[in-house]
Amino acid sequence: MTRERALKKIIRARAAKTGERYTTARRHVLAAMAVPTPPRPPAVPSDRRSPISDAKIVEKTGHGLDHWFVVLDRFGGPAKGHTALARHLYDDHHVPGWHAQGITTAYERARGVRVVNQRCDGEFEVSVSKVLPGTVTTVIKAFTSAPVRKQWIEGVDPDLAAALTAAVKDKRSKGFVVRPDGLGRFRFKWGATTVQFYLQPKPGSKVSFVVTHMKLLDAGAVEKSRRAWKQVLGAVAQVAKT
What we know:
Blueprint: H1 3-18, H2 22-33, H3 54-61, H4 65-75, H5 82-93, H6 97-110, E1 124-133, H7 136-144, H8 146-153, H9 158-169, E2 177-178, E3 184-190, E4 193-202, E5 206-216, H10 219-241
Antiparallel strand pairs: 1-5, 2-3, 3-4, 4-5
């Protein structure tokens, strides 16, 4: 039986059952058979909001963010949770792991589940980075040596200055840890938040310094932290030049 003949048979059966005219029954049958069109996803977030550019996603996957947003909508949307969404892209659509994470984060922001600087667990964090002159050792000294620290710390946020000073002087702390490959790390508590320093040596006697401030309360705390740490890294850079 051809598709057209099968359709006519279904329409006639409905008309006989409901007493509708053939044209009315046909309209209802076609409406019931129609595949719903998925809602058009919102505009792709700007580069400032998205953790990965649409162009890069197209390059790596062959499709843009709008395509992957529809895929995630059909999979079940934000209710599935971040891990399941990213795993779906990775396992079922063969999207590379890092890009699957980036697409999922962009999707959650576009759907209003997550805002900029908010993690999938709902907590907020911010990272600030700067390339500083000197070596990992000299940069660490700018924090751990009281005379050197005094040259820059008095001009920064007083609460941050107090927390940082207490952290570097804490005898119970491991302090700055430097691996054999030269990478440095320091982690400390600041109230209910956590601060992590990463130091990486760069060519030309320079150090890439990244500070990540975690477990922040909200977006307002993110911006306050961002300003404070930018001020710190700027002040340390001036001292490191001398």
